[in-house]
C-alpha cells in the first residue's frame, strides 16, 4: 500500500509473497518520496486465516 502526502491510499502490487512485498516497499521508501509504503495481507488471506 502507498499513502501520498494528501492521505490518499493506493494498492501498489498484489499477489506477492510477503518477503517480496516488503522488499518492494523498502525499495520505494528508499527513493525518498513523501509517500508512506507498507505491506498488508490481501483480503482473501485475512478471510482464510479467520475461517
Task: Walk me through this protein's architecture.
By secondary structure, the protein is α+β, with helices and mostly antiparallel strands. The protein has one domain (2-50). Helix content is 41%, strand content 12%. It has helices spanning 18-30, 43-50; strands spanning 2-3, 9-10, 36-37. A 3-stranded antiparallel sheet has the order 2-1-3. Strand 1 (2-3) and strand 2 (9-10) form a beta hairpin. The protein is flat and about 30 Å long.
How would the blueprint of this fold be written?
Blueprint: E1 2-3, E2 9-10, H1 18-30, E3 36-37, H2 43-50
Sketch the topology as an H/E string, one letter per element.
Answer: EEHEH
Low-confidence stretches: none
* End-to-end CA span: 24 Å
Mean pLDDT: 86
What is the count of DSSP helices, taking H or I runs of 4+ residues? 2
Strand content: 5-15%
The rounded Rg comes to 12 Å
Helix content: 40-55%
Shape: flat
Structural class determined from secondary elements: alpha+beta
Total discrete domains:
1
> Which strand order does the major sheet show?
2-1-3
Number of strands: 3
Characterize the biggest β-sheet. Answer: 3 strands, antiparallel
Amino acid at each position: 500500500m502507498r499513502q501520498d502526502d494528501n492521505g490518499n491510499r493506493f494498492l501498489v502490487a498484489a499477489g506477492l509473497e510477503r518477503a517480496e512485498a516488503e522488499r518492494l516497499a523498502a525499495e520505494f521508501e528508499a527513493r525518498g518520496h513523501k509517500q508512506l509504503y507498507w505491506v498488508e495481507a490481501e483480503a482473501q488471506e485475512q478471510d482464510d486465516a479467520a475461517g
